[in-house]
Amino acid sequence: MNGEIKLSELNKGFENIKKIDENGVEYWTARELFPLLGYAEWRAFEETIKRAQRAALGSGQNIADHFGQLTKLAVMGSNNNKREIKDWKLDRYACYLIAQNGDSRIPEIARAQTYFAIQTRKQELLEDSTEIDKRILIRDEVSSENKKLFKTAKKAGVSNFGLFNDAGYRGLYDMPLSDIEKKKKIKKGELLDRAGSTELAANLFRITQTDEKLKKDKISTNSEAQKTHHVVGRKVRQTIKDIGGTMPEHLLPEKHIKEVRKEKKLLNKDKKRLK
C-alpha cells in the first residue's frame, strides 16, 4: 500500500512539472526533474543525461529530437546575483532513457522507470489507436456509401453489378479488379478489406462522386451507368496523379480489416489497464 501511495505521489510530481510547448508536445526541464529522481547534485544528474543520450544514439535516434539544450537565469548566492546556467528540454522518450540509465540505488529511479514506461506505452497505444480508428472509420463509410451507390445504380438501370463495379475500378486503378488482386497478391474480394486508409479514401471519393453524378445526370441505362463510373474513377486517378500521390495499384495491402478490429479491442483493453 505504501508503495502505491509513493508511486501515486511521484506521478503527481511528474505531472505537476510537465509542460506543453507551442507544438502541443509535452516536455520536462532537467533542472526541475532531477530532484524528483532523487539526485542531490546536478553534476551527477548530467552524467545520467549523457548516458541517456548515448543510449538514444545507439538506438538510431537523433539526440536533438529528444534532448533540447536550454539556458536559464538563476539567482546565485546571498547577493542574489543572476547568471546563466545550463538546462535541458526533455521529451517523454528522453525522460524514459534517463530513468533507465539512472542510478538504480536511488528508490525514486525505479518508480520513475515505471511512470515513464507507462506514459510511453500510453502514447504508443494512442498513436496505434488513431491509425486503426481512421482505417475502420473509412472502411465503414465505404461499405455504407457502396450500398447507397448500388441502390442508385439499380434505379439508373444497372443490371450487371459486377461489370458496373469493375468499370469504376478500371477507371481508378487502370486495370480490372481481377488484375488488381493479382498485382497486390490478395484473395478475391479482399481489395477494400486489405486497403489502407489512403487507398480507402480514394475509393470512397470514387463511390460518392459516382452516386452524385448518376443522380445529377439522370442516368437511366446500364451502359451509361458503367461509363459514368469509369469516368469518375479516371477523374479521381488523375487528381491523385496531379498532386503527386501514389497510384492506388502501387499501395501495399495491409492487414485484413477483421484483424484490425480485433487489434482495436485489444488496444481498448490495454488502455483500461493503464488508466
Termini separation (Å)?
Answer: 18 Å
Seen as an oligomer or otherwise, the chain set is single chain
Backbone CA Rg: 28 Å
Overall, the morphology is: elongated
Global structural class? alpha+beta
Q: Ranges with pLDDT <50 over ≥5 residues?
A: 1-7
What does this structure look like?
Strands 1-2-4-3 form a 4-stranded antiparallel β-sheet. With 275 residues, the chain is of the alpha+beta class. The two termini are 18 Å apart. It has helices spanning 2-17, 30-36, 42-58, 92-100, 107-155, 161-173, 177-184, 191-194, 197-216, 222-242, 257-274, and strands at 19-20, 26-29, 67-76, 81-90. It has 2 domains: 2-103, no CATH class; 128-274, no CATH class. The protein contains 11 helices and 4 strands. Helix content is 66%, strand content 9%. The radius of gyration is 28 Å and the shape is elongated. Helix 4 packs antiparallel against helix 5 (107-155).
